[in-house]
Amino acid sequence: MEGIRIEATGRALPKKIVTNEDMSRLVDTTDEWIRTRTGIGQRHHCEEETCTSLAIEAAKKAMEKAGIDPEDVEAVVVATATSDLAFPSTACMVQKALGLPQEVMAFDISAGCTGFLYGLGVARGLLLAGKKQHVLLIGSEYLSRITDFTDRSTCVLFGDGAGAAVISRTKKPFAYRAWSDGEAGPLYCLGVGSDKAKLHMEGNQVFRFAVKAIAQGIEEILKDSGFTMDDIDYVVCHQANKRIIDHVGKKYAGTKAVFYTNVEYYANTSAASIPIALDEMSEKGMLEPGMKLILVGFGAGFTWSSALIMI
Ligand code: UT7
User: All domains of the chain, ordered by start, with CATH?
Assistant: First the structure.
């Protein structure tokens, strides 16, 4: 399949770090419970920052690293469930802050924690149909804004942050799948106009869905691409819970593929978690040309999606 690659990444995290001990002063919980059930040790919460400012900071870093001409950007796409304004989109504000030319499409997409993966599909479509070489794709979330800090079963799980990627066309191997089933009940947040716009999650149902979604995402992408897990260097899943990732990872024990996790430091940053992970991996020197990665996103909708990309 004619595909896309990730040219460069950037990330932005709010300065304020909230530890599990901090959370235990808000609700009846412990560091031990949070770590053993989720692998989370801390999360970042916005104070001065906003969904827009995080998106801009991450996008600037990715654009600087990519070193591309802003005239070559076809579109700015922000995946978010927590934009500062209902409209205009966060993407329009990123466009202006980065001084991108007017001949660019700028819009947000809403696909919960699958947003970055859906964004890859959208970016590929835009690049195949468009005239330019790159799409700036960002996942940015201010989840503490919609967190119910009286609900211990959800408030410990989420964090704020943004990750950005410059996406480019490639002839290298690429595979992509996306799904949705409209199962809204277990994971939702009321929208604009509601004074009760807080995240609601039935954790057990979402856990069961997540395990199935990751497994399907991996299997279908392997089938489509003709690779096996011994061809794959890293699997980067949406970072919701280390137990979910370990559970799926066990099935592929003994293969070359390594499941990357960093949920300990950021908690679940929804659409931002995969680009944050990719940026961290790149910074650590873990990503080398020729490596193959499987990315898997899953979340509200339910939506889920997977991609095989080559570095
Ligand atoms: O990004 C979108 C995708 N989201 C996800 O993938 C999240 C998927 N779900 C999960 O990660 C897990 O289901 C949770 C981490 C949310 C919950 O873990 P669990 O092992 O499924 O726990 P549970 O909901 O079955 O709760 C077990 C117990 C309950 O107490 P009882 O009824 O057994 O007495 C809860 O009330 O743990 C209690 N509990 C807590 N205890 C201490 C729930 N939250 C907490 C807490 N601290 N923060």
Answer: 3-170 (3.40.47.10), 175-310 (3.40.47.10)
**Quick one: tokens of 24?**
């235990």
Question: Residues 6 or more apart from 250 whose CB is under 8 A from it?
Answer: none
207 within ligand 1 shell (Cβ under 6 A): yes
Which residues are marked as active site? 113, 238, 268
Which residue owns the Cα nearest ligand 1 atom 12?
Answer: 203
Mean pLDDT by 10 residues, the chain (311 residues): 92 98 98 98 98 98 97 97 96 97 97 98 96 97 96 98 97 94 94 84 96 98 97 98 97 97 98 98 97 98 97 93
Place of tokens 């499987």: 294
Closest residue CA from atom 21 of ligand 1: 204
Per the CB < 8 A criterion, the answer to whether 65 and 8 are in contact is: yes
Q: Are 235 and 293 in contact (CB under 8 A)?
A: yes
Q: If residue 174 lies in a helix (H) or strand (E), which one and from where to where?
A: none
CA distance 34 to 149: 15
Query: Which residues have C-beta within 8 Å of that of residue 30, sequence separation ≥ 6?
Result: 20, 24
Distance from residue 242's CA to the centre of ligand 1 (Å): 13
Beta bridge partners of 162: 12, 140
Residue 29: strand, helix, or coil: coil
Among protein residues, the one with the nearest Cα to ligand 1's atom 45 is: 153
Q: Which backbone phi and psi does 304 adopt, to 5 degrees?
A: -155, 155
- CA separation for the pair 218, 270 (Å, rounded): 19
Closest ligand 1 atom to the C-alpha of 187?
A: 2
What is this structure's pTM? 0.97
Compute the distance from residue 27 Cα to the ligand 1 centre, in Å: 14
Looking from the CA of residue 206, the nearest atom of ligand 1 is 8
